[in-house]
Amino acid sequence: MIPLYEEHDGLITVYKQQARHFSPHLHHSLEVVYLLSGEIAIGVRQNLYPMQAGDLAVIFPDMIHHCQTFGSEDAEVCHIIAPVSLAEAYREELMNFCPAEPVIPKEKLHHDIPNIVFSLLKEFSENMTPEEIHLDKSREILAHAYMEMLLARCMPVLTLTEKGTGSTDIIYRTVSYISAHFREPVSLTGMAADLGISPFALSRVFSGTFHRNFNRYLNETRLEYACTLLRHTDRFVTDIAYDAGFESQRTFNRAFTEIYHQTPREYRKVRYKEAET
């Protein structure tokens, strides 16, 4: 999934891609994940929920979540990321509660839901930028209607509990801090000082909870944001590298190749071809 992007009120992002692992993250928008093929697992907070083809996950705003993939089988997933303003009828539930079980299995999905997902994919394709959608008032109204309908079909089968994001919890504070500051120069010691904890305690969060060190987690967060810009904009790769928080394009290219096994330009070329098919 694509967790980090420029969040603007009224804008929706809809795309499909081959599923891959994403580190724990959070954002202020509603995210819906529809698994088209294969198997994945969606992690919300510290729980892991397996998904089969045809299952749907509903992730409320400000919930720490991540994705894991398994085996060699390719899994294709559709992501819908929408601000709460596109689902005003459910604002109170989205802001104050969360699903006890975020994954709705295929057999419990209302028959309207796949049609809504595929309609969103058709209307808000990846070759349209969110800004282009926003400038088209009819499309913004359409996005609002689809999201309200989607939640109207999902809510009856979701059991909601109080969200209690736990702003004092070190894991939540860590994820929230990185989400807010990853585009800036960030160090483990500086972050620990800002959070009022020891660097040793913070390092244990990354290794014990996220199973990666601080630098790896920070780079993955920056790269996920860079991938969004590579897919949705025509900006120069160098500009994207600096905007994502890397000190040089060389450092960006090395980190990108290590994670994705291709250069940023190769990644963009492949994604453009996929969007055209």
What share of the residues does DSSP label as strand, in percent? 15-25%
Class based on secondary structure composition and strand pairing: alpha+beta
State the strand order across the main sheet.
1-8-3-6-10
- Name the CATH superfamily classification of the largest domain: Jelly Rolls
Explain what the structure shows.
The chain has helices at 91-96, 112-123, 130-135, 137-154, 170-181, 188-195, 199-208, 214-232, 237-243, 249-260, 264-276; strands spanning 13-18, 22-25, 30-37, 39-44, 47-52, 56-59, 65-69, 76-82, 97-99, 103-104, 160-162. The chain has 277 residues and is an alpha+beta fold. It has two domains: 13-162, Jelly Rolls; 170-276, Arc Repressor Mutant, subunit A (Orthogonal Bundle), CATH 1.10.10.60. The chain has a five-stranded antiparallel beta sheet, covered by helices on one side. Strand 4 and strand 5 (47-52) form a beta hairpin. Helix 2 runs antiparallel to helix 4 and helix 6 (188-195) packs across helix 7. It is globular.
Quick structural summary:
This protein is of the alpha+beta class and 277 residues long.
Structural topology:
Layout: E1 13-18, E2 22-25, E3 30-37, E4 39-44, E5 47-52, E6 56-59, E7 65-69, E8 76-82, H1 91-96, E9 97-99, E10 103-104, H2 112-123, H3 130-135, H4 137-154, E11 160-162, H5 170-181, H6 188-195, H7 199-208, H8 214-232, H9 237-243, H10 249-260, H11 264-276
Helix pairs in contact: 2-4, 6-7
